[in-house]
Structure formats: structure tokens, C-alpha cells
Amino acid sequence: MAVLTLEGHGLTIAKMKSFLTEEDSTVEISEAAYENVRGSRKIVEDIIEHEKTIYGITTGFGLFSDVRISKDRTQDLQVNLIRSHSCGVGAPFAENTVLSMMVLRLNTLLKGHSGVTVGLVDQLKTFINARIIPKVPEQGSLGASGDLAPLSHLAIALIGEGEVYYGGELRDSKDVLEALDIEPLTLQAKEGLALINGTQPMTAQGLINYIEAEKLMADSVWIASLTHQALNGITDAFNEKVHTSRGYPEQVEVAGALRDYLEGSKLTTRQGEVRVQDGYSLRCIPQVHGASLQTLAYVKDKLEIEMNAANDNPLVFSEDEVISGGNFHGQPIAIAMDLLKIGTAEIANISERRIERLVNPSLNGDLPAFLSPEEGLQSGAMILQYAAASLVSENKTLAHPASVDSIPSSANQEDHVSMGTIGSRHARDIINNMRNVLATELFIALTAVEIKGVDRLSPKTREKFDTYREIVEFIDHDRNFSKDIKILSDALRMIN
């Protein structure tokens, strides 16, 4: 059983990936982090005791920041905040995404700048370890002032309201807590605000996006290698000298991976043997895939900063330094997600162009038109290309940058917002489309190389062929191909 120790710093994508994928994983809180929590909480309690005017502790929120709240109403203020802000709509975030939200929010609170109680961080820890997953609608956040609506749905479950997923069922939070003998959290001053001022929904979805995109970008190279062999592609374009002469490390990396996958193939050609040059979707795989890989490096850097960031407001530094700022603004993650959208959409774009080359009799050499087993009578892979074209066209609309949009809120007090959660959700949708396009390319390429002769494949791609041929059949008759694409898409999500 894996244990992830949270300290308010040092959290990485690799650690989160292990936590999410290893069975029965749990979180623990370091003693130093507990001390951070106790220290910042004492400062908040002193502020309340001396009735100082501090935003969100002894004042209202947003436009109501100038309204003083009496000492005896500070708890009511926090509960009212959570209830009123629980107004998200639409389908719920996936359970793994919400689990990640809780881990990331807990890590932020442990930095000691949020002024929460030990009881709150322990409640989050209990929910995480018991896999009590709040139902969090994915629509309704502007991505500034924090992801207010989504995080409110997370927070309301901690106090025994709202709904949660537990044991595979959607149930009232109150009923689950009673069944497990867990006391609902009683929010203290500042705690409601501390739970919802943050970027965890966009960051958690971004984390899942990154993990899935990283795997798919790696898969896209060997899938392209199968297609390259099915089309008797020219290997000269992958010569190391070509790519080092340009200088992009990711381009060099992809070209090296292609040479490795194609080593020993009897299906590839040299320039001039069959043709002098390949089309760009074959010849420029290192340049295009490499450029998309560049986006992953940027996204990883921004995610790991945000996963360990203090993005609350106000931030507690000392009794004399409780500062209102804007660390809840999601612009860094919004831009990163928009960049990831472009990078992943382009992998799908070039994959669809390779699909066209596999099925088009004007481009696929001596392969049958549309890989039809009986041309005219059977359509073969004809409409598979249509479906892939539809997905990449949809991606082009989803890839429109969310981060360049903004709309004022809270009576113009919050007059610029990031739309980062929209960007993160759209990146997820593009990645899902990308997976289906790659699954389609793989499905068609498996049949194409089988027509050409599996024994002529390179050793490394032959291994891939054998793995995936076990789960889908050769296109030897027209059938419901959506089932085959679903099988391969699911496999690309799971098989390493």
C-alpha cells in the first residue's frame, strides 16, 4: 500500500500518478505541516479575538468586503458562503479528478498560509483515505477568485451536506458520514473561504490531462511507425543529422524513437527506391510530434508549481501580515491548458492525415482501396476516416483558447477572470478525441501491415502488433467497427 506524505511542498506529478494508480493508496500529513497549520490558525484566532478588519474573516466577500461581520457570526459567514456558492451545473467531474482536487487542496492548506484548523485538514485526509468522493459539477467556474462553485461542492460534503460517491454509489454525504461514524466538519472562521479560494479543479483536471497526454504522445510514435511501414515509408528523413541540425531536443527524441521502432524492418524504404520523398504526415513526424512534446514540458512545470502553491486569499504570514492578494487567479494554468489543447489536437490532426493515406487508393501504394476485403461490395475502413475527420474537426473548435476570454463578476469587483477550468475541461475532451483518432489509426494500420506481411515488420513494432492483434481482429469483413475502436481506445488508456 503506497503512502503519500503531504508537507505543503514537494508534490510532483509522478507522486500523484503513483497515488492515483496504486491500489489502496493513502495520504499522511507530516508533523512539520501540522505545525504550519497550528501556527497560522493561532493568528486567525487572535484576529477574531481582537476584532481586526481582515477580508473574509471579519468581513463579507467580493463586493461585500466592506461589510463588517461581528465575532459571534463568523461561523455563520463561512457556512453561508459554502451553501450559496454550491451552484455548479452539468455532469460531475470524474471521481479520480475530485480525489486529486482533495489531495491538492489539502497540500495547499498545509503550507500554513490559510489559517484553517487541524480538524479541517484531518477531515480532508479522512475523505481522501476512505475514498469519500464529493459529487462536483464540472461547469460554473470562472477560474478566478478560485474555482468557487466546484470547490464549494467539495467543501459542502465535508460538513455533511451535498452528495458523495462511496463504494460505487451516489449517496447523501450525511448518510455516509453517519454510517462511517465520522463527524461532519463544523466550519470555523476563515475556513469556508480557505476551502474554495483556489485553483484545484482546473489543476486536478490538468494533472489528469497531463498524465494521459504524456502516455498518448509516446503511443503516437509507435503507432505512426506501424503506418510508416504499411506505406513503405522512407527512413532517410529520420536521420539523426537532419534533426540535430535543427536543434530541438524533442524533435531529436522523436526521430530517435522512430529509428529505434523501425530498426530491422523489411517494409521501410530509402529515398529513391520507391519515391524520393514521403508526404508530410510521414516525413515530418519528428517535427510535428516533437513540437507537441514541447508543450508537455511547459505544462508540467506550471502544474507542479501550482500543485504546491499558496492560492488562498487572504494569505496569513503573521499577525501583522494577513494580506489580500490574487493568487487564486488561474491564468497560469489557463494558458498551460490552452497550450496543451493545441499540442494534443495536432497529434490527432497528423494521425488523421496518416489514416487518409492508409485508406486512399491514390496514396496507399498497393494496398486495397479503404482496405476493403471486397471492393465495392464492402466499404472496409472508408467511414473510419470520416469519424476521425469529425473528431479532429471538433478538436479545432475545442482548441480555441479559453484564457483569452473574460467576463466581469461580483458587480465588477472581479473584473478579469481566467476561464482556466473551461480550458482544462476542453483539454480533457481533446485528449479523449485524440485517443480515439490514434485508436483508429492503430486499427487500420494493424490490418494494413498484415496485408503487407507481419513477418516483415521491425522486431519492436512486431511486439506491439502481437499485443494489439490479440484484442481486435483483422478487417476481413464489414462489421460494427465502433466496438473495435472502443476496445483499442480503452487499451491505449491502460496498456503500457
Question: Characteristics of this structure?
Answer:
two-stranded parallel ribbon; 496 residues; three-stranded antiparallel sheet; 2 domains; Fumarase C, Chain B, domain 1; Fumarase C, Chain A, domain 2; single chain; mainly alpha; 55% helix
Short précis:
The chain is mainly alpha-helical and 496 residues long.
What does this structure look like?
The chain has 496 residues and is mainly alpha-helical. The protein folds into two domains: 3-198, Fumarase/aspartase (N-terminal domain) (Fumarase C, Chain B, domain 1), CATH 1.10.275.10; 205-494, Up-down Bundle (Fumarase C, Chain A, domain 2). The protein is 55% helix and 6% strand. It is built from 18 helices and nine strands. The chain has helices spanning 13-21, 31-49, 74-85, 95-109, 118-130, 148-158, 173-179, 191-196, 200-230, 240-244, 249-262, 280-283, 285-307, 331-359, 382-398, 420-452, 459-469, 481-494, and strands at residues 3-6, 26-29, 89-92, 133-134, 137-139, 163-166, 169-172, 315-318, 321-323. The strands form four sheets. It has a three-stranded antiparallel β-sheet with strand order 4-6-7. The protein has a two-stranded parallel ribbon with strand order 1-2. α1 links the parallel β1 and β2. α9 (200-230) packs parallel to α14, α13 (285-307) packs antiparallel against α14 and α16 (420-452) crosses α18 (481-494). The chain is elongated, with a radius of gyration of 26 Å. The two termini are 21 Å apart. 51% of the residues are buried.
- Tell me the number of helical segments per DSSP (H or I, 4 or more residues long): 18
What is the global morphology? elongated
Q: Extract low-pLDDT stretches.
A: none
Radius of gyration, taken over Cα atoms and rounded to an integer in Å? 26 Å
Gap between N and C termini = 21 Å
Q: Given this structure, which CATH class of the largest domain is correct?
A: Mainly Alpha
Mean pLDDT reading: 93
Helix content: 55-70%
Main location: cytoplasm
Subcellular location: Cytoplasm
Pathway: Amino-acid degradation; L-histidine degradation into L-glutamate; N-formimidoyl-L-glutamate from L-histidine: step 1/3
GO cellular component, one term: cytoplasm
